[in-house]
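Thread: quick sanity check before group meeting

JM: Hey all, I'm pulling together slides for Thursday and realized we never actually wrote out the predicted structure for the chain we discussed last week. Dropping the sequence here so it's in one place. If anyone has concerns about the input, flag it before I start.
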Amino acid sequence: MADVILNVKNLDISFKTSAGMVHAIRGIDFDLERGETVAIVGESGSGKSVTMKAAMGILAKNAVVNSGQIDFTYTNEDGELGTVDILEKDKKWLRKHINGKRIAMVFQDPMTSLDPTMNIGKQLVEGILLHTKLSKDLAYMKAVSLLKEVGIEDAEKRMKQYPHQLSGGMRQRVVIAIALSCDPNLLICDEPTTALDVTIQAKIIELIKKVQKERGISVIYITHDLGVVAKVADYVNVMYAGKIIEKGLTNEVFYDPKHPYTWGLLSAMPDLETDDDRLYTIPGSPPNLLHEVKGDAFSPRNRFALEIDDIEEPPMFQITKNHFAATWLLDPRAPKVEMPTELRERLDRMKKEASKYDSEL
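JM (edit): ok, ran it. Output follows.
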């Protein structure tokens, strides 16, 4: 555990709403090591962003933490390692010591992250002055250097411009520069490429990978795009209805998935080689977490569901050293069910393409 910088244990969160309590996060456990990239994937509403907002201590006021621990290990001002439980600290302490300084977040829409009334330079310098002891001149020089690091040309000129004068891709680069400005230990990327076109998406992903490699920081990706996951992550956590239902090394989850929900997500990816003229969609909708979930939350949408799925929630079954999945299909007593043949063929094809690409590099 020496290199683990984030350790989430039994995280359970509800939200007070006018309709009642929504049980959004239902017992989550995962670790993140120094320099590692972990992806959290799942449909909208599965609890990905809420989990990471809890890790930053920026949950909404109507959030109620029922149980859990979020231990964050970082280097303090004395150069020594310290560990804090984020959930035990108040927002004022977190703003001063953690938010932006040691854990930074890149949100999906750069226009909601940037102040339209302030020029880029002021927004960059402000955060550096708040969290470091640099003078204004040195903070300005660092801001220019950061813009160059994230691939923005004419950095000095861009410092004087406002967000509306930049393209979507450049705005996202500025947001990444702001996130990196105080040398954080952990960078959380919440759908960082959703608002961008495909060519810019690839550049932003490569930029984050480059920065991570150069700085040795840990990264958590929140996404529903499994194509992004394959390119960036070491480990994957698949979330459904507030729980992690499959986790493991990227190659294990991507090329040998065991949970029917993961099969559905992978089948829904666009594929030029498929014979189908329509994209696959997972039938039905996620459960309403206003009501207590009985059994396996995915059961009503799962064509492979067993009788026990409606009665009892499945435990996490271990497949390999790192690969786990919560599905009764892995129970030794369950009938043997393989993933759909079309998906198996698709994954084999993707694996060959990936190995061919790696050999060319």
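AS: nice. The mean pLDDT is 90. The CA atoms of residues 36 and 205 lie 15 Å apart.
JM: adding both to the slides.
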